[in-house]
Amino acid sequence: CSVLKKMDDSLLSMSVALGTMLLEVAAAVALGVVVCLLVFRKKKVEETLEAEDGWWGAGQRPESAEDETIRPFRVQTSTEEIQDLYRRIDQTRPVPSLEESRFHYGFNSTYLQKVVSYWRNEFDWEKQVAKLNKYPHFKTKIDGLDIHFIHVRPPHLPEGKTAIPLLMVHGWPSSFFEFYGILPLLTEPANPDDIVFQVICPSIPGYGFSEAPHKQGFDSVCAAHIFYKLMKRLGFNEFYAQGGDWGCLICTNIAQLQPSRVKGLHLSFLSVANPGLIAGLSLLFGQRFPGLFELKDHDVKRLFPFMKKVVVELLKESGYLHIQATKPDTAGRALNDSPVGLAVYILEKFSTWTDPEFRNLEDGGLERKYSIDDLLTNVMIYWVTGSIISSMRLYKEILGRGVGTQKHDKVPVRVPTAVACFPNELVHLPKIWAKQKYPNVVSFNYLPRGGHFGAFEEPELLAADIQSFVKK
């Protein structure tokens, strides 16, 4: 009887195991069929995005034609502005951080005192202004706004080569200065087989030295329309576009508006508002069947468990987003008056968005990846232009209407697209998600290191990925 019971138990276990295996195989087959139907379903008629010329300047549009002159511009500040900055820094009231809190409550006050002391007593703004003016700056009026940009041409173009136009667009809380490390790598590549670029880096309207919109409704599509007109005004009928953060969305919108003009789209950040059913299925079954959803080890590591790796991390880092998407002028007014408050608000992002583990360090790891001079230069661009409020308003204009509800959220991007995946990026989207919006992904690379500010932090890696994509 004992032997027979063991045989029965063994047979029962085998039956359960076999049944489970058959269910998993059936589920995998069913999922495979669904995925195939989704991936290979008949394509809809290609859509493009449309944008009308707007008027974002003060008052009514003038009857006379807009002045399309491109004017040279230089960064400069007065002694009075710097003295006012010092006075405001001197009047700051220090607040101690909690013991052992490091960067878990935000910017650590003990380390902040060191940064503020350096800013007040040692930071050489004039030297940084000279660095900013190393490249030629320009301004031009488009749709009522004075648009600032730098246009960097190769100083020594090899014989027989043409400088390929590349538009690079920054995000928040960054600026055109984010690209200063990558510019020489693109315009003066060391490898003679590399492509030589001429790079155009505009400031988003309301950021830095670009005039802020005076009217409601200026979103990423409006910025894209202006930047396309800028490239056209510069004489470029075709060009490549690259962006991260808001730059990703703006460059995506340019490709949607003018797919025949954008030869290639390179993104170092992805945010697909409507990933669709395929994303839901991959979240449910991707950890068990990664190959079915083209998920690599890196994808599985970043996505699962989903609640801990994605939802909780986003909640930790997105408080600013809700404020700026609802009441930007309220918090912005305080930041516009306090240079130290502005520095804390901006610099904290360069800590945790570069590496979430930097929260565990007393100094937030800021000097592990960046120099304090460069970080403060980015802060100064916001301070001397008084642009923090207008930069924050872009969140209200884009997100305030609802996520995934706008036409640009639904129109696919047909131009050749590359995605550079930095491992510490705020949001990770696997290739199969990206292809729901960017069906013509020709390059999707997992880079060995780096976070949200890829061009600023790892210019060599990003430059190499851009080179590889454009060659392809």
From TrEMBL:
The keyword Membrane applies. Keywords: Aromatic hydrocarbons catabolism, Endoplasmic reticulum, Hydrolase, Membrane, Transmembrane, Transmembrane helix. Residues 70-179 form the Epoxide hydrolase N-terminal domain. GO terms for molecular function: cis-stilbene-oxide hydrolase activity. Biotransformation enzyme that catalyzes the hydrolysis of arene and aliphatic epoxides to less reactive and more water soluble dihydrodiols by the trans addition of water. The active site is at D245, Y395, H452. It is found in: Endoplasmic reticulum membrane; Microsome membrane. It is a single-pass membrane protein. Belongs to the peptidase S33 family. Its main location: endoplasmic reticulum. InterPro entries: AB_hydrolase_fold (IPR029058), Epox_hydrolase-like (IPR000639), Epoxide_hydro_N (IPR010497), Epoxide_hydrolase (IPR016292). The keyword Magnesium does not apply. It is an enzyme of class 3 (hydrolase). Signal peptide: none annotated. Its EC number is 3.3.2.9. This is Epoxide hydrolase.
